[in-house]
Design goal:
about 190 residues, about 20% helix, alpha+beta, rod-shaped, 4-stranded antiparallel β-sheet
């Protein structure tokens, strides 16, 4: 009976539903996706959970393929990047990547149009793609989460091993090898 109880407790511990650690989600940005902005001195991204500062990345790329981001700060759920003065009007792209609290990288892009006064208009050939010869760093691909399945298989194997050990322990004779030694009392 004790074996069955311990086995059920171990099985429940492994299979009990646990709240999943969700990926961080971008709640808002300034500038917003598709916005037209006349002035820009910083980019702000707001997430639903605190962001790990040591893994946050942000790049602002202009229609000419040049990068305009400068410094990056992270405070709880808010990531802020200062921006160099924009000189060319047209389409800009904010590329960002963070690491969620569950350890998975999350990334995205935000596209907006800069219409600032005094900005040189971007030519008809300006697109969201970088200019020829511009170097851009690739964003690493997100993990598929296969390590979680490996961890679950390992936990199930450990559960099986624990069950086997407990079963072997329960099936042992209780008093085997525990007979008291014979005492020889010699009267002198």
């Amino acid at each position: 009976m004790r074996f069955l109880t311990v086995s059920l407790v171990l099985l429940a511990a492994v299979l009990w539903p646990v709240p999943a650690s969700a990926h961080n989600v971008l709640k808002g940005s300034d500038p917003a996706e598709g916005a037209s902005v006349p002035h820009l001195d910083r980019v702000t991204l707001t997430f639903d959970q605190p962001v790990r500062a040591d893994f946050a990345k942000l790049a602002l790329t202009g229609p000419d393929g040049a990068r305009y981001d400068a410094g990056l700060t992270v405070r709880d759920e808010v990531v802020t990047a200062t921006v160099k003065p924009l000189t060319t009007g047209g389409a800009y792209v904010i590329g960002w990547q963070i690491v969620s609290n569950d350890g998975h990288p999350v990334s995205g892009t935000i596209r907006f149009t800069y219409t600032g006064a005094g900005a040189a208009p971007a030519g008809a050939a300006a697109t969201l793609a970088p200019a020829p010869g511009a170097v851009s760093a690739p964003i690493p691909a997100a993990s598929g989460g296969s390590w979680v399945w490996g961890l679950m298989v390992f936990a199930l194997l450990m559960l099986g091993l624990a069950t086997w050990v407990l079963h072997r322990h329960e099936s042992r004779p209780r008093h085997a090898g525990t007979t008291p030694p014979a005492h020889d009392r010699t009267l002198a």
